[in-house]
């Protein structure tokens, strides 16, 4: 397809405080990158890109349609996988167990809180897209949720930036930056144009999602959180266009597996090579959808495995917990008691037996707020990310 490259313009640099190296202190101008307006552009896919795009759409549709009764637990599983991997790209990694404690309301570290905030932001964006067009307020609301755990970043959340910033390079000026996005006075118009592009229904679905993501990252509308919100935008567009209704395609693990290639692809988009970025996202969708189908099959087999190793009595508290584990693989004692409908003592005995059998593991030893997780589900979360990573590096 014919796609306009970003323009480069030299802008005067007037820092409030002169800090850093001599080069930082004497910097007088900076080259900024200005994305094109894309709201009315067309994505006419041809040749190999069109074929890969079609294959990707089929793979996502197969994932969505293929797992009937298991879609509810699978949808939560994939959404968490996508959000956590997206956070890892930004070097935020609490680990699944710490994240699980945060998810169940336990005491959590800052990284776990940040990962949980990414899950909430993705949910807000996808749910909003399922009910209507994606708007700027959708993005701002998600950004407020994402930034909420940190007092300092929360102060700048939910609004587009009003300062010039940059990616990489010096801490003090854009000197030697990897990328300098457009100046703040252009951000409002560029975001309005991006929202118009995201609302359209006449474009190839995955191509629209891929380009919207690359354009969002190029605008870099926020002080922080651009990567996670921009990747969530892909899932939101897939939901808005009806390609997904319940599942979230875990694309971020592909990007995490080879971040250099991911960032290189964004750079090529800025040079006008939209076709290659569309193909990159389409291939990522194929890899992740096929791996997610493998995880769905593994999850479907877990309840039978749990019964084999725990041998619960019919209608016992143990059996009721096992029956609920796919829907609620991480939970507190209060939740367990609601599931079993029995006394504290009976519930704790059931939890003890299931832990001893290897069905559950304790994530938090705190007597005031113990948290358990289904061991097999945590293992599969790790397995999905590992599988996607391996397949990504084997078939770049």
Automatic annotation (TrEMBL):
Organism of this sequence: Rhodococcus koreensis
One Pfam family it belongs to: Fic
Active site: 220
Gene3D superfamilies: Fido-like domain
Span list, region Disordered: 1-26
The name this protein goes by in its record: Fic family protein
Domain Fido as annotated: residue spans: 134-283
UniProt keyword list: ATP-binding, Nucleotide-binding
Record has ATP-binding as a keyword: yes
Record's keyword annotation contains ATP-binding: yes
Residue positions binding ATP: 224-231
InterPro entries: Fido, Fido-like_dom_sf, Fido_containing
GO MF annotation, one: ATP binding
